[in-house]
Design a protein that fits this description.
338 residues, binds 2-amino-3-ketobutyric acid
Length: 338
């Protein structure tokens, strides 16, 4: 039998960095990473093999299928919300067609080795579309099945792929003579905005928070593109990686759904600015609202109800707002930009 391998797409992105570090902490996971770009030097030695290429390259996926026995897929490759608005067709290709290509790949893997392939899929709070700012403020925490009217291409892509993942997992080719579903064990987390001390995001709309922090730490002026009262949920990168791994490890029978909200804290942009200024009093953080990006943030909920994740698989973020900045973000970021 070939050694079971974990495949990570979009491995060079922010979540990929955190995930590869964590998965290899104890040195016993074989990882194949796939990304359009070379893997950053800090990660290169940690993976079994890095493949530079596209999730849309069918021949490449066929070659991986033949060469490896993949039993876990972390499908992280995606174009985020802001970038997707500038290139909606490209976003559809990467976010939807790319995800379907990876689901087909996992289905064929599952068929060939006879066990379900665990497929971890990061979705986003972008699947929500609050009808108005008044409703957003009034409703507070949203549940998984509420307000699913995304206004962005990225949100539409993610919502559809959540459904299609569930289809592959439970209903794939339901009219065929032989049952063909169950070859993929699809599990999905709707992530809030993520903040890492070690990487800076690009192409997202929740980027205002990490951008503000990383600019302040480097003594660079920053003009925040959303109003001070803007509020969406966030969490630290280590907690998001923990969540992915915890969901991956949860016994299937404990899971009552395929898609889970998670969140940790939900400060306003003004509160984030205040905390950053306490740590970096010289920082120059102003506001220059970009009405269009503001519209996207206003359409996302101010918080999420993550009780299903807490009950089903024990989701419990380590960092609340204060700890996130005091223990994780500020100390690590100071070291990073010394
Ligand atoms: C984005 O801003 O597009 C992402 C997200 C919230 O999914 N960070």
């Amino acid at each position: 039998m070939r050694t079971p391998v974990t495949l990570i797409t979009g491995a060079n992105g922010e979540i990929g960095h955190g995930l590869i570090h964590r998965l290899t902490e104890f040195g016993n996971t074989s990882i194949i990473s796939l990304d359009l770009n070379p893997l950053s030097p800090a990660l290169a030695s940690k993976v079994t093999r890095h493949i530079m290429g596209s999730i849309l390259d069918e021949q490449l996926l066929d070659r991986i299928l033949v060469e490896y026995e993949i039993d876990h897929v972390y499908h992280l490759a995606a174009l985020l919300s802001t970038r997707s608005e500038f290139a909606p067709m490209m976003a559809h290709r990467v976010n939807v067609e790319g995800t379907i290509a990876m689901l087909e790949f996992a289905q064929r893997q599952g068929e060939s080795h006879g066990r379900p392939v665990l497929f971890l899929y990061p979705s986003s709070i972008a699947v929500y579309g609050m009808p108005s700012l008044e409703a957003k403020n009034r409703v507070g925490k949203v549940k998984e099945e509420e307000f699913l009217h995304p206004t962005t291409m990225y949100g539409c892509n993610k919502l559809y792929c959540e459904q299609i993942g569930n289809y592959y997992s439970r209903h794939y080719k339901q009219l065929a003579a032989e049952p063909q579903s169950g070859k993929i064990d699809f599990r999905c987390i709707r992530f809030p905005g993520l903040i890492s001390a070690f990487t800076v995001p690009s192409g997202g709309t929740s980027d205002f928070a990490p951008e503000m922090l990383h600019a302040a730490a480097q003594n660079q002026p920053y003009a925040c593109f959303v109003r001070p009262d803007s509020r969406i949920p966030f969490m630290t990168m280590p907690d998001s990686i923990d969540a992915l791994l915890k969901l991956a490890q949860a016994p299937r029978e404990q899971l009552t759904r395929t898609v889970y909200n998670i969140g940790a804290f939900n400060p306003s942009a003004a509160e984030i600015r205040e905390i950053i200024l306490r740590a970096f009093p010289q920082a120059e953080i102003t506001t220059q609202v970009d009405a269009k990006r503001q519209g996207i943030i206003d359409s996302w909920p101010m918080d999420v109800d993550d009780s299903a994740a807490r009950n089903d698989w024990g989701f419990a973020p380590h960092y609340d707002l204060q700890l996130a900045f005091e223990e994780y973000l500020i100390p690590n970021i100071r070291k990073r930009y010394l």
